Amino acid sequence: MVTERSARESPELRAAEQVVLVVDDDEDLADTCRYWLDGERFAVETAYGGKEALRRLDDTVDVVLLDRRMPNVTGDDVLEEIRERGLDCRVAMMTAVEPDTDIVDMPFDAYLVKPVSESEVKETVEELLVRSGFGSEVREYFALESTEAALDSRDVEELREPEALSDLRGRLEAVRAEHEEAIRNREAQLDRLNRTNELLRDVDRALIDARTRDEIEQTVCDVVASAHEAAFVLRRTAAGTLRCTAAAGHGLDPAGVDIDFVDEAFDIDGTVEDGFAFDDISEAHRAAVVGDAAALDTVSALCVAVDYRETMYGALVVYDETDGFDEESAALFSDLGATVGNGINATQSKQLLNGDSVVELEFQVGGDAGVLAALSATLDCRFSLDGVSRLDDGLTCFVSVAGASGTDAVAAAIDADDVSQARVVSDGDGESVVELRTDAEAVLSTAIDHGASVERLTLSEGSGSLALHVAADADHGALVEAVTTAAPGVSVVAKREVERSVQSPDSFRRALDSKLTDRQRTVLETSLVSGYFEWPRGSTAEEVADSLGISPPTLHEHLRTAERKLIETYFDELSPAPADD
Q1: Nearest-angstrom CA–CA distance, 122 and 56
Q2: Which keywords, in A-to-Z order, does the entry hold (predicted)?
């Protein structure tokens, strides 16, 4: 069986030019913050101390999470250097030091007192990124407001100079009086941002419990409509048309939703423009949406793609009684669409793994289907795909080669324009295994992005067959259309139901126990209960080895062997057998 291994994907619309730098000499905390922030709409880096931070800091950094209490070069030193260099980045002090009036004149933008929570860190970074676009006077106001909020957490009597807090409040009032309108507009913008971010978190929590695509779509509509006026989801069918499959708000019924106006948001490729807004909606359409045009004075709508990688699942349309969606909310809703697409893909993959039966789609593959077919023709040999991993920039394929040496296969692959990396994994007399990284296997990429499992691919002298496994209730027609149009020379030849053998947890455990030695089982269990597999780790490899009375190299040897047996047993049990005709 061929396996697809992929982590939760970050939204494809992430703004890679936005960089967040986490600075803390506590490496575990810095790594934890990076873990919390990873997958958001920005890149995250870490610096384990003030010296490392100063080496990294330049004008590409947008936000710094900065610990105050660090040896040698303190957070205060780093902050001072940032301002002396004139770096235009927002800084949040993140420290266990209780705030006092010494912070009044420090040029930071936010102050977080440890221990910090995931939501605190995310909300602070998101707000500071938005504040970066404000004018300097407005940024100063919000920075002063953050300082006041930090000091308000202390009793005035405990402050070293209580009058400094009074002076700070006076400065706040003066800045607000001078820039009242601009500050009010930016406060409204931040309020929309916070509401949208809370909405995204609500959707994330709701998606955890959703088991089917229908549940996901309806859950998203319910959550979005609770924060706005109404929402509906459009699903793209195999024929490329749109139909409403879920709706919420103002008594919307999917069967009665007017979706004609959405057609202009879709280009000829069936994709949706990022954050396509409809700010001028006619009264007739408003009546069709809400059932009563008088129910809302004005309505703005936002249409975003529901997609995963290159797979277009449909669109989410959101209505709100506002003056329109700004760029920040449009970008965040675009991320929401990517999150929903990722959830749909993950749900279909789970159904594929856990269903009692799957559907096998078999395709005939010709020599123009991709780089693997072309290489098998060039080498006049037989290829068999053993495994494939989906990467952001293509695929990594592990291929068994018969009729040619692994060295010859790698040499031919390197000469090919579409292979970026190639190596020999093993080179035997009868059969070799090679690893190839390519961005020219559109058929396999398309299949994986549609939630299919690549069960087998065999190629002989440039042609062969491909078998995909998909969930029984997946949109098989859409998958067939996508795969057969991904590259020339691909056609579907068969569709069949494949039954899975039912195995109880006890039988799986017995199968695994028969392969593990007592020592390997002990090492696995001790590593688990000691927190070795957690992140951050509860115990290091040295600590686990010491508790077992063995050396760290011996521990790693036992762990690798036990993990290999566990993984082999798992994937052996995933292999279904074709149903009797």
Answers
A1: 22
A2: Coiled coil, Phosphoprotein, Transcription, Transcription regulation
